[in-house]
Amino acid sequence: MASPSGSEPEKETTVAQQPGLVSGILKNQLTTIVIILLVMVALLGIFTRTFLTANNIFNVLRAFSWIAIASFGQSMVIIGGGIDLSSGSTMAFAGIITAIMLTHGLGVILSVFIGLAFGAMIGFFNGAMVSRTKLPPFIATLGMMSVLRGFCYGLTSGWPVRDLPRAFLYLGQTDLSLFIWKVPLPALIMILFVIISYLYLNKTKVGYHIYAVGGNEYAASLAGIDAPRVKYVIYTLSGFFAAIGGILMTSRLGVAAPTAAQGYELDIIAAAVIGGISLDGGEGNVWGALVGAAIMQILRNALVLMGFPAYWQPSAIGAVIIGAVMIDQYRKRRI
Amino acid sequence: MNEEMVTASTPTVMSQPILELKGICKYFGGVHALEDVDFEVYPNEIVAIVGDNGAGKSTLIKIIAGVHSPTAGKIIMNGQFVEIPSPIHARELGIETVYQELALIETRDVPSNFFLGREPTLGKAGIFVDRKKMVDDTVHTLKELGISLPSLNTLVRYLSGGQRQSLAIGRIMPWGGKIIIMDEPTAALGVKESRKVLDLVLKLKEKGCSVIVISHNMRHVFNVADRIVVLRGGRKVGERIKSQSSLDEIVKLIVGAEML
């Protein structure tokens, strides 16, 4: 059994050294995709007049903020060794619940709170299915995806919920003045949540346990980590984050449609995967999901700006997903 | 079936056993994995459990490690009856286990594995991990044990078998465990790496621990063990002080050939 570095064990040292710059970059999928993102931005800046305008940039930011926020929760689930296919439906459901509460005159704060609580509750239920009844996460959340979509249609009889109060629309439609820019509120909320998620996942004890359970659940359990509890935490957070995204989406669109966010779960998962979060669990971080979501939206934006018919967008996104994962695997093999 | 030959006179300091198992049975449905086994661990000794596949070795140590509960029998620690319903309880009693499957997280770096499940935290709130302490303590312990790893930031995935085993053994050191259980610590290791791991086992004894080792490798057993317990078909069929036994005798006990 030779050590992978090829050196004799005797010559190795126990010094806590940082990896070298080059290998550090290679080892880090995040760096790779940030470079891809920057190249995309640079090319678009050169080849289109409109891309690098503050207006367009903020439009792009606003457009992927919902997906990105939901993706942070999804990332925690995937890093913890699971998957949450119900996140798109949860977005729609939380939006509809909030909208229904609003139309019953419940006030913005209370309505949003109830919408978020429902999202967290759905996540908690997913967690229960996965950790108590031992359902495979794919099946449990696939079922939940469909159940929730049914609720969305059933509660609204298939009609969109309209006439939401102006105070609620403020959430998704306002721009806040920041230095010389007017930054969309959803983008700021997204930045806030990526920081919180990063600190939670990478600096706290629970975060360490999420990585451990996703990396090797059996080993984590032997080490005394309460794996079922970790699963409750990640699925609940995923539901909660999806609800935030769904409520922001509803506020932006000004209407809660039962058909909203259909297929978003795949975008949410794709953002995480492009960002270097392995579907095997235990690896990656939420910055990757943020950049992954950004790459997908910039690609969509670019195709529009360059005059491609919108019909071709799914093909481009699909190609990016495949490419990103191939790069990731190539990188892992080389080390 | 042979009766035990050695009971009272083990050559190392013969005080009270720190751990005693009496009449332990473990049934999995109709399978009798262990049948009326007595087993003792004395302070500061290395005791090896040997036997063929299915002899009940792993079941026995899993009972001590809190992974399985015995169907019948008593466990006595330092003169008191105890129950070990979970690995966490075992740790609280000072029993640390190095599992055959290694139980490391391949996608995490060295300190994260070193402190797996017991990450130190900052302040009283206990929320944020004290990464600096993790790194410092890991470096300290690895140095003390003479374990060398390429870099602490390396993911365990990129460590060799011997490095992983060293890490798995090294990480139990700081917790003050009195009894260390090792399931096949040298399985799947090369000659040189096995040597290092066996040195670690001896070092643990030097530091005042008692070590329970399971191994198929009789040479390794005779290298380190003070006492050898032989299981066959879920029963204890013999117990020997190493210095008063021979490889030949132990092998005969394992396979069940009649002793003359």
Report on this structure.
The complex is a heterodimer of chains A (335) and B (260). Chain A is mostly helical and 335 residues long. In chain A, 71% of the residues lie in helices and 2% in strands. Chain A has a single domain, classed as Orthogonal Bundle (ABC transporter involved in vitamin B12 uptake, BtuC), CATH 1.10.3470. Chain A contains 14 helices and 2 strands; from the N terminus they run αααααααββααααααα. A two-stranded antiparallel sheet of chain A has the order 1-2. In chain A, a hairpin with a 2-residue loop joins β1 (175-178) and β2. Chain A starts with 20 loop residues before the first helix and ends with a helix. Chain B is globular. Chain B folds into 2 domains: 1-94 and 176-260, P-loop containing nucleotide triphosphate hydrolases (Rossmann fold); 103-175, no CATH class. In chain B, α5 packs parallel to α6 (191-206). The A-B interface holds A 1-5, 7, 9-10, 12-19, 203-209, 211-212, 214-216, 218-225, 278, 281-283, 335 and B 67, 87-88, 91, 97, 99, 101-108, 112, 116-119, 121, 126-129, 131, 135, 138-139, 142-143, 147-153, 158-163, 188-190, 192-193, 196.
Q: Please identify, by name, the CATH architecture of the largest domain in chain B.
A: 3-Layer(aba) Sandwich
Which secondary-structure class do the elements of chain A indicate?
Answer: mainly alpha
What would you report as the Rg of chain B, rounded to the nearest angstrom?
19 Å
Helical segment count of chain B? 8
Computed CA radius of gyration of chain A, to the nearest angstrom? 21 Å
Strand order of the largest sheet of chain A: 1-2
What structural class results from the helix and strand content of chain B?
alpha/beta
Mean pLDDT of chain A comes to: 89
Strand content of chain A: under 5%
Largest interface: A-B, 41 and 49 residues
Q: What share of residues of chain B is helical?
A: 25-40%
Name given to the CATH homologous superfamily of the largest domain in chain B: P-loop containing nucleotide triphosphate hydrolases
